[in-house]
Structure formats: C-alpha cells, structure tokens
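User: Here's a chain of 287 residues. Predict its fold as tokens.
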Amino acid sequence: MNLAIIGAGAWGTALGICAARSGADVLIWSYDGKIADFDGVDTPKNIQITREMHDLSGCDAWIMVTPAAFFRETARKARQHYKNVPIIICTKGAEPETGCFMSEILHAEIPECKNFGILSGPQFASEVARGIPTGSTIAGTSIARNAAHDALRNLYLTDSEDVIGAEICGIGKNAVALICGYNSVAAAGENERALIFTLAWGEVVKIGTAAGAKLETFFELCGIGDLFLSATSYTSRNFSGGADIARGNAPVGTVEGITALLGLLSRAEKYNVATPVLNQMRKKLNI
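Assistant: Prediction complete.
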C-alpha cells in the first residue's frame, strides 16, 4: 500500500511510523518539509516527506491529521490531487470559526469523496511511535475501514459505522479533558471533580444521541477509552491546558478542548439539549 499522511505533527508522524512498520510505503505531506521527532525512535526507511501536494495523487489512501483550525484550508488545496481513494480523518475537534466537524468540512471541500472514516481512540502519539499497544475505533464505510486495517496493522482497531458518534466522542473528550484539567486545580476536592466529570460526559452523550449517534459508541475505544486517557493525565494537552488556565497561565501548545467545548454548546443549542455543566465551565474558562 502507498499511504499518504497529510499533516506532519506528532500524531501524523506517529501514524506514519506505525504504518511504515506495518509494511506500507508512507508519504508524509508537511507544509514545511519537517516531521516530528520522538526521542529514541528512528524514522523507518519506507517513509518519505514532501512539501508538494501533487505527490498525494499517487497514493492508495489518505490519512488527514492536520489541526482542526487548518483542516478546511488543507482539504481545499488537496482536492485537485484527489483520485477517488478512501480518506481517514484522524483530526479530533471542531472548526474554531464555524463549529463544523471534520467530516462536514471534508464533505464540503472534497464532495466527491464517498469513502471516508473517522479514526479515534485512546492514543498518545509518543506511545504509538514507540510501538506501545494502542487501540482505536475506525468508523466509516467498509472501504475506508479496510484501508485503515491494511495501513495500520500494528493498532488494535474495532469497526463501527457510527461516524457522527465517533466524531462527537473525539470532540467531547477534548472538552471534558479540558474541564477535568481545570478542576484538578480549581475543584474543592475529589468528590467535586468526580461529580463534574460525570455530569459533563453525560451532557456530551445527550448531545451525541440527539445528533443521531448510537449510545453504544460512547462505551467504545473512541468513547470511554479516549475519555479515560485524556481526562486523567497531564500528558493530555487538553488536561494540562485546563490546569494552566485554572492557575491563571496561558496554555502551552494547541488546546483543541476550547473550540471543542464551543462546538458542543453550539450543537446543544441546535438540538435543544440542556447543558448546565458545559455552560458553567465555559463561563469559568472565560471563552
């Protein structure tokens, strides 16, 4: 398989390393020609790096891993090189300006893509790069799911057709991780932290089911699995970002939980879902 990874941050690079170890010939598109570096991890020889989007046209599948804020721009530029191959979205989040989910952006910018999937689960990039066992949900068409299985044989993948559910899980865990990080500093005690954590995730589930997601999706790797990883560890950028905000400091790096929270609240209003905890946290976070 000739696999394109579109986005060369930590997650895109880690997926490229994983796919290369699985036997794929990997092409990583990077806007600046650089990829992430992981201490003690060598880049496999079957990975190539390019700054030229026209190189994507020769690949059998695309994995899109650009940050949510740049997903639309990247998809728009890549469209002219698209040749009816499956696209796997690995970006978790909502577009800051519109609140759109990545699948909605893909549909708008590359409407001819009929086979796409969402890869989401408990995944820290550095551990994937080091080959530590990792599981994820791949939700989408059968062609997209098969492409993910072929490209990422070193990951434990479970299949789903619930695209919107997998996507809302990824967005929701970002928001809840941000909230949990904030409360790791600001809450009066462990009881309050558990209370807010449970109520916040419950509101995410209500938004998701109102949008048509299947309830069982929230108990899969993309749901409770990813939530457990992201909402309990300072390794999570959203968790540590929330803690920084509670301390009065600016978050370090990209904290997609902020736009995720706003995107969820926009959907809650659309579907008339009450979200008192998420709304309260928006006020506390001053966003």
